[in-house]
Structure formats: C-alpha cells, structure tokens
What we know:
The protein is α+β, with helices and mostly antiparallel strands and about 300 residues long. Helix content is about 35%, strand content about 10%. Helix 3 (about 100-115) packs across helix 5 (about 215-220) and helix 4 packs across helix 5 (about 215-220). The termini are far apart. Residues about 1-25 and about 290-295 have low confidence and may be disordered.
Amino acid sequence: NDYSDVGNGIPTNPITLSGKNYVGVDQQQRKEELIHTLIDMTNTESNMYWHEIFLHAFNVTNRSFCLPWTVDSDNWWTHHPDFEVFDETATKYCFQLIPDTSRLELMREIYRAQFHGNCSNVFTLTTVNSGWGADSSNLRRGLSFAMNEKRPMQIHGQPWHYAAPDEAGKPNDRPTEAACPLMTMYCYFLNLSNCEVRAGVGEWDSGKWDADDEIALQEYVLRPQTWLRHKMIDFIHNQKIETPCTVFHVRRSDVTLHDGKFNRKYHAISEYIEAPLRTTSIISAENDNDQNMNV
Length: 295
C-alpha cells in the first residue's frame, strides 16, 4: 500500500500499540507502524481516509483510538463501519472495533454490498417523510430488501422534512432554513453508498434478508456525522438539572405531522404535567381505602 500522502506529522502523545511503547522511536518508523496497525484493525477492503485521522489519534490500542472533536472523521467512518463509537466526552470521542463478532461481520457485509456492488442495479429508496420512527424503519427495511436482492441502496434526493421542512411540504410555524444544501438525511448522517440514484425503482418488500441482527442495519443507516454527535454531547453537558427530579418521556411531536385521516390525536404537554398529580391523588385514595379495610 502507498502511504505517501499521509504527511509528515506525528502524534504528540505517547502511543502504545500491541504492547509496545513508541516513545523515542524514530519518527518515520513510528508513523508507519501506526498506520499499518490502524489499518490492520479493519477488514472492509478499504484503507481509505486513514490519513485524515491517524495523525490526530491518541489513546491508541490494537482495537481502539480516540480523536479530538476538532477532527472530522466522517469520510473515514463512512468506509469503516466495522468500528463503533464507544466513548464521548466534552473534548474527545473514541472508536473501537465492534466487539460482537457476528455484528462486526454483518457491518462489513453491508459495506461491501454498498460500496463494492453493482451501481447499475442500485435500489433507490424514497424517504417517507412521516414520523421519526417510520422514517428510520423505512431506511432499515429498505436496506434489508437491498441486501436480500444483492443490490446497493441509495436515498432519493427529494427534500426530507427533518432537513428541509418547507421544501418537503411540512413547514413549521415560521419559515425554516434548510439544514444543508442537500436537504436530505445526508445533512445529518453518513452516506450509505457510492452509487447514484436511479429512477424507476419499482415495487419492493422487506424483511427477507437472512440476518438476525437488525441492530446492524439500523446502525449502518443512522451513523451521525461528527458535528451532530458533538452538538448532542454539548447539549447534554450544558443541561442544568437539579436533583432529585422526575423524568418522563413525552412522545407527541411526530403525530402532528400527519394530515387528514392519518392525523392522530395527542395529549397536550399540560396533561402530562398534571398526570402525576392525578396519579398521586388516586394512589393516596387507594391507600386510604386499604387502611380502612385493614381496620
């Protein structure tokens, strides 16, 4: 392999690879052994884009490494889905080779189909522009169908309502600027394939691919870009929550996107807030009745 394009920089932190400490070793040798070791971690038939990240890697082992948030790893992770994010802090994020062997091999199989498949037979999936659950399920089911048909899959370029609500015909209360010029899921997530879209996809069904692990399908199609993961971590760390407190999940926003006969009812936020008070009253009344019965 030709690594001549990786530059002349070296990591500034001591690096441990395969049990050896490389402090004081010749810089060129250290750099080359780092490249070879990192590339040997993966088996997706691609050594692409290692040069964009390896100079910045630290806490390197024979199965994992970390990067500062200032380093964009999107190109690299697109071609190395057999790695997963296992740690994120305010200053860094870390990848590791997927420890589950079966899921690891499934991710590699998906990648080979997506980036080494026949693009003349690409399956083009149209996003449904429904709720988040329906949209993500549609992506997973579409990829399952494509894998069963031994075809790569690409996403239709129509506007996605989570990226461009106005252009997708699902506007908010006030005009909203598109998340990015693409106006698709690729504003947020990694590209699924190197194939371009083709018209006339025809009928399709799903759930036929002989894979037990739907997690692999879901994780492949919904790998967040670096900027989005960083934004989520910043949001989490900036929350000022006083304890003790009560936390409950409210699922209400997606259902309001449906029109006509598909429009489902939802509870107002005030009802969720009042519900614990009503529940407490009911429980107290039941306890009083129990005490009376015991007496």
